């Protein structure tokens, strides 16, 4: 019988590290306006998270226009148009064997946070949270 050597339930330390390095590099490149696209240079884009596949060949970049300055679809399209140049900048900055393929997606973290706040402010939920726990006590194991 072979036992599992590694826990594969989540991203590895290397995936997390590479994702964070890519996130920082993209944020710096976009902040400095180094991409030669007038539409992209006019946008302020926040790079929230980068998740990298297990083989480090695909990086999914979650982005959001700052303060809703432009529609998210427009920002994602502008980034996708300049994917090759952004990938080239990543390969220059990082010491990876291959620069991963970039895929841009809308960062929905803030939308989920707003929805959670809305749910927790609901009077019914407030009542349920404030109510004492009515489940019977677990039987003692010593008895």
Task: Provide keyphrases for this structure.
about 140 residues; alpha+beta; 3-stranded mixed beta sheet; 6 helices; flat
Topology:
Elements (H helix, E strand, L loop, with lengths): L12 H20 L5 H4 L3 E8 L5 E8 L6 H10 L1 H11 L7 E6 L2 H12 L2 H8 L13
Parallel strand pairs: 2-3
Antiparallel strand pairs: 1-2
Helix pairs in contact: 1-4
Structure description:
With 143 residues, this protein is an alpha+beta fold. Helix 1 (13-32) packs across helix 4 (83-93). Strands 1-2-3 form a 3-stranded mixed sheet. It is flat, with a radius of gyration of 22 Å. 45% of the residues lie in helices and 15% in strands.
**Biggest sheet overview:** 3 strands, mixed
End-to-end C-alpha gap: 39 Å
Radius of gyration: 22 Å
Which percent range fits the helix content?
40-55%
**What structural category arises from helix and sheet content?**
alpha+beta
The beta-strand count equals 3
Cα shape: flat
H/E element string?
HHEEHHEHH
Beta fraction of the residues? 15-25%
- How many individual helices? 6
Q: Biggest sheet: strands side by side, in what order? A: 1-2-3
Calculate the mean pLDDT score and round it. Answer: 82
Compact description:
The protein is of the alpha+beta class.
